[in-house]
């Protein structure tokens, strides 16, 4: 998948979730929408930090706008963390609104300044391969504990690092799908059936021989 199209698609998806959050009036529904938002933004952050920005840096070098984009990810992570910590607070909506403003600023600058550079410096094959790698990483994050991943990155950001390194392993939060029980081998059933037929045939043959022997004796 083309990486530029994929990023813009996720940007619009986040915009739609923010809008649903704003229009919702019930606390339980807002928290459910925020959970969806947290998974999207954390997955988006992971694939950009770990894959997109390193690839862009390799293609265009450490240009100013690119490095600013990397630093902005720390602001998004911090705003997301603060909102998550205040899910039960009466100020929850305000924290999410600040997150939305930080997110919108990042998206606007990324789409207007960084993505055009990427399109000029990478061919279609590179854009597609990069997009596929990011899709795969995003899907991985959806099965991870996003709060653990968020805190891992945030600790590095607060320590002054612009670039963060992903954890070696993130504990799974969502239960894994149960594997289907293996089917019994067909050959085993056939062998048993064959053995049964042999025993039956032998039994019939033995009965025939017994009858013939009885007749001879009677004569």
Short description:
This protein has 219 residues and is an all-alpha fold.
Descriptive terms for the model:
219 residues, mainly alpha, 0% strand, disordered C terminus
Can you characterise this structure?
The protein is an all-alpha fold and about 220 residues long. The protein has two domains: about 160 residues; about 35 residues. Helix content is about 80%, strand content about 0%. The protein is built from seven helices and no strands. Helix 2 packs parallel to helix 4 and helix 2 packs antiparallel against helix 5. The C terminus is likely disordered.
User: Unreliable segments (pLDDT under 50, ≥5 consecutive)?
Assistant: 174-186, 188-219
Overall number of structural domains: 2
For the report, how would you describe the main beta sheet? none
Q: Please estimate the helix content.
A: over 70%
- What percent strand? under 5%
Write the element-wise H/E pattern from the N-terminal end onward. HHHHHHH
Looking at how many chains there are and whether they match, the oligomeric state comes to single chain
**Contiguous helical run count:** 7
Q: What value does the average pLDDT take?
A: 82
Task: Tell me the Rg in angstroms.
Answer: 32 Å
Shape: globular
Number of strands: 0
Structural class: mainly alpha
What is the distance, rounded to the nearest whole angstrom, between the alpha carbons of the first and last residues?
Answer: 92 Å
